[in-house]
Design a protein that fits this description.
The complex is a heterodimer of chains A (165) and B (626). Chain A is α+β, with helices and mostly antiparallel strands and 165 residues long. Chain A is built from eight helices and four strands. The termini of chain B are far apart. The chains are: A alpha+beta (165), B alpha/beta (626).
């Protein structure tokens, strides 16, 4: 994955949260090995991993920046780009795949012009895929902002997504 | 504050006798004949609306002031996910399925107050059309042996007293006070238990090397990074009966001499994380974790670590790298993790299901345990039966049951009158098994012989509409995304296989492709660093082995017999069936469909991009896919 270090855009957003970020990072001083967990906390706060927060983690905890970045880019759960207001996750586990999960991804791509990992220009939706949510009985499953939508069809998905502005 | 500390001290159990007397006092307080409404709170039932049902019951019970007469319990996953949300009325075990909040008032009126059964909420067996009132009579449950999974449906996972009342932590107390570490390891060895996470390595041998390994610091790890798509039994156990996992781990800690444990759980399983966390806190309060457990002198703590969504982290060395705060890349295992694992210390890593078996073995003994199963695979196994099957859900059966029994007797066969085509076992490392081999008994060795594997217990059933080349491509595509990229055979080999398979599914396959795929498979199994790469070719090899014709049709005739591979499919409209509703015209992204209202529409093949949008929206089945 290509990563460029451009802090100018994210600086303002993050500055408002300085205190919160600092205390979060500080709470990991004794457990630096739990960096994945720390990044999850940060992502829960910002919806993505702002790059200067990663730099801050490196400086405060004394972890090489290369290591922070390698962890942040290795795991699928992390996003280095801001995500949209609504997160649409299509399950592509085997059970959902044989029941037509891919057609749901295609549908979102057709209607909103985004591929998995991308966000619409108006920041309305981010589309992601997941390998299995373990709700195989309800497949194909789509999760919108944490809400599970079961036994989806492209048509049903269309109606569901219209509700999210 | 003082009051809180005093209460905590009162809860703390100081001895085996303390645990027993607590159990007796809990049981004495409980009336087994009391009416209890238990609602399945597993992820699938929740997604289907179980939380709304629980809220409706709470409101209704409060409104009618029935608190004295009935209790309400949100339990772990019952397993019959197809029919959720499930409600079971104890003590008679009346099973209501697909319950909605609107049904709650009637359930209270009719069943709880008047004692009558509501016919319309009962389960009807689709094969016999028989209406079934009681949970144990449902064929799906009747044919299972739920030694590990059974407790799930009867306890509230967030209440340690429920687990203790069901006999919980008695194995721990037996292990701590009546068994030496050597004796425990010997018992696990004798039981014949094999790792339930994938490889099927003999658990006792792992324990033995960890016990013998030198070093003061040792770790116990529970692998709950259940990555196989289509498998969710680890999640259901951790959600539904977290204390059984903790109990197994504490016994493991006593056996090898460890003071620190880790549960590495998938980030995608928030409920499992929450329940495991609550269970750890409660076990600490009761003196079953922490310092001087049950007064035995054993100190042991468990920490939960959440994964970051990397499939390869289910591999033991990658999991440990991730626990150390590094990226999840596997290491070459010249030395076993049991001797040099987490931070170079001996580490005992087992899968969730493996840990859940441990209390049972300690309590009932290896002789009892090894009576179930086959020569090489003992005990029961929990499978997730998913895909194109009538009764989707989790089933626990003795090793050695045939695939046919599992799919047709328990699973109820294939829905919509379709034909069975294949069953995929073992996740991305496994293979596809065709109909002629359905009478194979399921155990570790038999599945390996067929070119598949047991894996984590996922069983994905596929009907005639499934394209086997597409399935192979799906798994290779999955592994391409999940390969960590450290070793060349896996990184490049899987990538090349993916290109070849994509070509075949797009009608660009060449006759020599099948040989190339087999060559690549050999390189992968010989040269890849970890099991992800070594077994990556299994889905491809097994589909070539059993469904070669289908590959050849794709390559030579440029056709996909199942109508799945988009580039090889042609959409057209049946003028007899088309009602001229304009729906597909509106949906077509390229304007390829044309026609007038109430007149049959047509598709311009030159403009059609074969997205299938028309097929998806047509309400009259007028779009033909071929």
């Amino acid at each position: 994955m290509e990563v460029t270090l451009d802090f100018s855009k994210v600086k303002e957003i993050v500055e408002d949260y300085t205190e919160k970020v600092d205390s979060l990072i500080d709470s990991y001083t004794d457990k630096k090995e739990q960096i994945i967990s720390l990044l999850q906390d940060i992502q829960a706060e910002f919806n993505y991993l702002p790059q200067d927060v990663l730099v801050k983690i490196s400086q405060k905890l004394g972890i090489p920046l290369s290591q922070v970045f390698s962890v942040a880019t290795f795991f699928r759960a992390f996003s280095l780009k801001p995500r949209g207001r609504h997160l649409v996750t299509v399950c592509l586990g085997t059970a959902c795949h044989v029941k037509g999960g891919q057609r749901l991804v295609d549908k979102v791509e057709r209607d909103y012009g985004i591929k998995p990992g991308e966000t619409t220009e108006d920041m309305r939706f981010t589309l992601e895929t997941v390998n299995c949510l373990g709700c195989c009985a309800l497949g194909p499953v789509v999760v919108v902002d944490g809400k599970y939508e079961s036994k989806m069809t492209p048509d049903k998905l269309n109606r569901v997504l219209k509700k999210y502005k | 504050m003082v009051e809180q500390v005093r209460k905590l001290l009162e809860k703390r159990l100081e001895s085996a006798e303390g645990l027993e007397s607590l159990r007796q006092s809990i049981l004495a307080k409980r009336d087994p004949q009391r009416t209890c409404i238990s609602v399945c709170g597993g992820t699938a039932c929740r997604a289907a609306g179980a939380e709304g049902v629980v809220d409706a019951f709470l409101d209704e019970i409060e409104r009618r002031e029935l608190q004295v007469k009935v209790s309400l319990k949100e339990t772990g996953c019952h397993g019959f996910c197809e029919r959720g949300p499930l409600v079971v009325i104890e003590p008679k075990k009346i099973l209501y399925q697909q319950v909605k909040p609107e049904d709650v008032e009637e359930i209270i009126d009719e069943t709880i107050v008047a004692g009558r059964v509501i016919e319309r909420l009962l389960y009807v067996d689709p094969t016999t059309n028989e209406t079934i009132t009681y949970e144990p009579d449902v064929p799906f449950y009747k044919k299972q042996t739920r030694n590990i999974f059974g407790v799930n449906g009867t306890i509230d996972p967030t209440n340690i007293e429920d687990y203790i009342a069901s006999g919980g932590y008695s194995a721990l107390s037996k292990a701590l006070f009546q068994m030496t570490p050597e004796k425990i390891v010997a018992e696990v060895k004798k039981s014949g238990l094999r790792g339930r996470g994938g490889g099927g390595f003999p658990t006792g041998r792992k324990w033995q090397s960890c016990l013998e390994a030198k070093g003061k610091v040792k770790y116990v790890i529970c692998n709950a990074d259940e990555g196989d798509p289509g498998a969710y039994q680890d999640r259901s156990l951790l959600e539904g009966n977290p204390h059984s996992i903790l109990e197994g781990m504490i016994i493991g800690a006593h056996a090898i001499g460890s003071h620190q444990g880790y549960i590495y759980v998938r980030n995608e399983y928030p409920l499992a994380v929450r329940h495991a966390r609550i269970a750890i806190e409660q076990a600490m309060d009761y003196g079953l974790l922490g310092k001087n457990i049950l007064g035995s002198g054993l100190d042991f703590n468990i920490t939960i670590n959440k994964g970051g969504g990397a499939f390869v982290c289910g591999e033991s060395s990658a999991l440990m790298a991730s626990l150390e705060g590094k990226i999840g890349e596997p290491k070459a295992k010249y030395v076993h993790m049991a001797e040099k694992g987490l931070w170079e210390h001996p580490s005992l890593l087992n899968n969730v299901k493996t840990w859940a078996n441990v209390p049972l073995i300690v309590n009932k003994g290896a002789d009892w345990y090894s009576k179930l199963g086959t020569a090489g695979s003992k005990g029961t196994m929990i499978f997730s039966l998913v895909g194109n099957i009538v009764n989707t859900g989790l089933v626990e059966v003795p090793m050695g049951i045939t695939l046919r029994q599992m799919i047709f007797d328990i699973g109820g066969g294939i829905p919509d009158g379709k034909k069975f085509k294949a069953v995929q076992t073992g996740g991305p490392s496994g293979g596809c098994i065709p109909e002629q081999l359905l009478d194979t008994p399921v155990d570790f060795d038999e599945l390996t012989k067929l070119g598949s594997m047991m894996g984590s217990g996922g069983m994905i059933v596929m009907d005639e509409d499934t394209c086997m080349v597409d399935v192979a491509r799906y798994f290779i595509e999955f592994l391409k995304g999940e390969s960590c990229g450290k070793c060349t055979p896996c990184r490049e080999g899987i990538n090349r296989m993916s290109q070849i398979l994509s070509n075949i599914t797009q009608g660009k396959g060449k006759p020599e492709d099948l040989d190339t795929l087999q060559d690549l498979a050999e390189v992968l199994s010989a040269g890849a660093l970890c099991a992800l790469g070594q077994t990556a070719a299994n889905p491809v090899l097994s589909t070539i082995r059993y469904f070669k014709d289908e590959y050849l049709t794709h390559i030579n005739n440029k056709k996909c017999p199942a109508g799945v591979c988009r580039e090889l499919v042609r959409f057209s409209i049946d003028p007899e069936k088309c009602e001229g509703c304009l729906r597909c015209i509106r949906e077509c992204p390229t304007g390829a469909v044309t026609g007038e209202k109430k007149q049959p529409h047509t598709i311009n093949q030159d403009m059609c991009i074969r997205c299938g949008a028309c097929y998806d929206v047509c309400k009259f089945n007028a779009v033909i896919k071929r």
